[in-house]
Amino acid sequence: MRIGLFVTCLTDTLFPDTGKAVVTVLERLGHRVEFPAGQACCGQMHFNTGYRREATPMARGFVAAFGGFEAVVTPSASCAAMVREYYPALAAEAADESLARAVAQVAPRTYELSEFLADVLGVTDVGAYFPHRVTYHPSCHSLRMLRVGDAPARLLRAVRGLDLVDLPDAESCCGFGGTFAVKNPDVSAAICADKVAAIRQTGAQVVCAADNSCLMHIGGSLTRQRSGVATMHLAEILARTEDAP
């Protein structure tokens, strides 16, 4: 299958190893992965902050960059949700029929990594090896918009050597919420404190998620507490093998 990697601006700028891990996993499964150089921000930050009209050119750029692929895969549930759930609304508000047609073609083929692997390809064992105690934080967008269900857990349980432990009150938000953390820092930090307390309660060595934005927020708190708990994107765990450091 010819797959376009939508790396997202956050991952490209701050967590490039996650993008590389996605490529590693998909190529290991025999797929051709390409990185369209014309891709940019999906516009989620603008849309969520009320700048819907300014987000529309970003939707046009996305469909132009990814229009020729059989599937578009991203290591971000929130960005996948933006494309699938809100691009149709942007096209309708702009009264742009050509954009609406392009979105109708591309948006349904845009997937977060875990749902693509487990539900589209039907693969849970990707040949990974990660001998550590891990807990999983389900991000709000993966739960409530994409509804990926237990796809990440199925993938993690198939990783050799991995001890997956349940996270108490797992469905609670981590408190990041993009610009919410900027506009409401005290509330955001309080929510994150509850999430980090739950993570530490598990005794996990690593907390993973399908969104680096959540991991960035959680990881900052874990580091300030000198907890010793690492954060890793799901893709990076799935990319590990016995030969990897």
Task: Give a brief outline of the structure.
With 245 residues, the protein is of the alpha/beta class.
Account of the protein in words:
With about 240 residues, this protein is an alpha/beta fold. The chain has 2 domains: about 1-120, no CATH class; about 135-240, Rossmann fold, CATH 3.40.50. It is about 50% helix and about 10% strand. The protein has helices at about 10-15, 15-30, 45-50, 50-65, 75-95, 95-105, 115-120, 140-145, 150-155, 180-185, 185-200, 210-225, 235-240, and strands spanning about 1-5, 30-35, 70-75, 110, 135, 165, 205-210, 230-235. A 4-stranded parallel β-sheet has the order 2-1-3-4, with helices on both faces. A 4-stranded parallel β-sheet has the order 6-5-7-8, sandwiched between helices. The longest helix is centred in the last third of the chain and has 18 residues, at about 185-200. The radius of gyration is 18 Å and the shape is globular. It starts with a strand and ends in a 6-residue tail after the last helix.
Strand order of the largest sheet: 2-1-3-4
Fraction of residues in helix: 40-55%
What radius of gyration results from the CA coordinates?
Answer: 18 Å
How many structural domains does the protein architecture include?
Answer: 2
Find the structural class using helix and strand composition.
alpha/beta
First-to-last CA distance: 29 Å
Number of helices: 13
In terms of DSSP E residues, the strand content is 5-15%
- The whole-number mean of residue pLDDT values reads 93
- Count of DSSP E strands? 8
User: Shape from CA axes?
Assistant: globular
The largest sheet, given as strand count, sense and whether it forms a barrel, is:
4 strands, parallel
| Low-confidence spans | none
Q: SSE order in H/E notation?
A: EHHEHHEHHEHEHHEHHEHEH
